[in-house]
């Protein structure tokens, strides 16, 4: 087993080195030997060696014990192995240490080791979508329509081109050093724990306006209300939605706007009921029409139509009008219309109508006449 090197020799400093000199020495070695960026042989071992040396020498108490007892430590306890646990006594800014490491940051190099996330992507980001609800009449849903809607959304500021800065000039955020994310490091009983969150100073953008735009106050976006024409195809129904590309909120860093989703609600009809592409209605039928048969008018989506009713039609009989339904969505096929008839019995009868019905009942073998003395008297004298 190779003998341990003196911690001061590892960092290349003398015993009187200041905290700043120790930090600078470690920073130089970390950049040079970090396994993710270094191609040199044994880079990982050298990185761990520098890590262990700095974890001891950056802590005043550990440094004092090392200077006095060497590697054995007080009572022969030693200083622990190399690794991130050795940083428990250290206090320095990881982002500062690795912020300029060839485009890498603390989140890139150690994010997974500490449970933290990676850097937020710096490329274009699509805007958020918008959802609106639109009501349609039964006929509009059946035949299609063009509806005008008002949409409130965020749009890129025209004054600054969406940059938030006059002239479009922005500079790297000093808080997050252009990463858009900030690292939070806490000491726990198990070592260091790191989390990341969007930078509040730049709202996660990684840059701030050099000269704030007065119109959007540096946000790069403004609220706007726009009227948009929506073409509704025939055959839609409640719950269907239409997608209008790039009619949503403005994107970030040159990303395209989000999409607009129009959710449809079809109002009920007084006459028709719909099931898919088929429509249904109920039509009254006179007693004589049902008994003798007739040609009647029935409603359709396109107006009135003639329907032949055969003699002896009963209440509940359903007739089919082929192709008189709704056009199927994304198809050239039309549904059918189903007409359900019900025989309407008159509530009041005239004298002649009543006599005819009584005569019909007699022919049918049923005596519905009132043959009492009073009944005969009423018939004779028109009572």
Automatic annotation (TrEMBL):
<dbReference type="GO" id="GO:0031072">
    <property type="term" value="F:heat shock protein binding"/>
</dbReference>
<dbReference type="GO" id="GO:0042026">
    <property type="term" value="P:protein refolding"/>
</dbReference>
<dbReference type="InterPro" id="IPR036410">
    <property type="entry name" value="HSP_DnaJ_Cys-rich_dom_sf"/>
</dbReference>
<feature type="domain" description="CR-type">
    <location>
        <begin position="144"/>
        <end position="225"/>
    </location>
</feature>
<dbReference type="InterPro" id="IPR012724">
    <property type="entry name" value="DnaJ"/>
</dbReference>
<keyword id="KW-0677">Repeat</keyword>
<dbReference type="GO" id="GO:0006260">
    <property type="term" value="P:DNA replication"/>
</dbReference>
<dbReference type="GO" id="GO:0009408">
    <property type="term" value="P:response to heat"/>
</dbReference>
<feature type="zinc finger region" description="CR-type">
    <location>
        <begin position="144"/>
        <end position="225"/>
    </location>
</feature>
<keyword id="KW-0863">Zinc-finger</keyword>
<dbReference type="Pfam" id="PF00684">
    <property type="entry name" value="DnaJ_CXXCXGXG"/>
</dbReference>
<protein>
    <submittedName>
        <fullName>Molecular chaperone DnaJ</fullName>
        <ecNumber>1.8.4.-</ecNumber>
    </submittedName>
</protein>
<dbReference type="Pfam" id="PF01556">
    <property type="entry name" value="DnaJ_C"/>
</dbReference>
<dbReference type="InterPro" id="IPR001623">
    <property type="entry name" value="DnaJ_domain"/>
</dbReference>
<dbReference type="InterPro" id="IPR001305">
    <property type="entry name" value="HSP_DnaJ_Cys-rich_dom"/>
</dbReference>
<keyword id="KW-0143">Chaperone</keyword>
<keyword id="KW-0479">Metal-binding</keyword>
<dbReference type="GO" id="GO:0005737">
    <property type="term" value="C:cytoplasm"/>
</dbReference>
<keyword id="KW-0235">DNA replication</keyword>
<dbReference type="GO" id="GO:0008270">
    <property type="term" value="F:zinc ion binding"/>
</dbReference>
<dbReference type="GO" id="GO:0016491">
    <property type="term" value="F:oxidoreductase activity"/>
</dbReference>
<dbReference type="InterPro" id="IPR036869">
    <property type="entry name" value="J_dom_sf"/>
</dbReference>
<dbReference type="GO" id="GO:0051082">
    <property type="term" value="F:unfolded protein binding"/>
</dbReference>
<keyword id="KW-0560">Oxidoreductase</keyword>
<dbReference type="InterPro" id="IPR008971">
    <property type="entry name" value="HSP40/DnaJ_pept-bd"/>
</dbReference>
<keyword id="KW-0346">Stress response</keyword>
<dbReference type="Pfam" id="PF00226">
    <property type="entry name" value="DnaJ"/>
</dbReference>
<dbReference type="InterPro" id="IPR002939">
    <property type="entry name" value="DnaJ_C"/>
</dbReference>
<feature type="domain" description="J">
    <location>
        <begin position="6"/>
        <end position="70"/>
    </location>
</feature>
<dbReference type="InterPro" id="IPR018253">
    <property type="entry name" value="DnaJ_domain_CS"/>
</dbReference>
<keyword id="KW-0963">Cytoplasm</keyword>
<comment type="subunit">
    <text>Homodimer.</text>
</comment>
<keyword id="KW-0862">Zinc</keyword>
<dbReference type="GO" id="GO:0005524">
    <property type="term" value="F:ATP binding"/>
</dbReference>
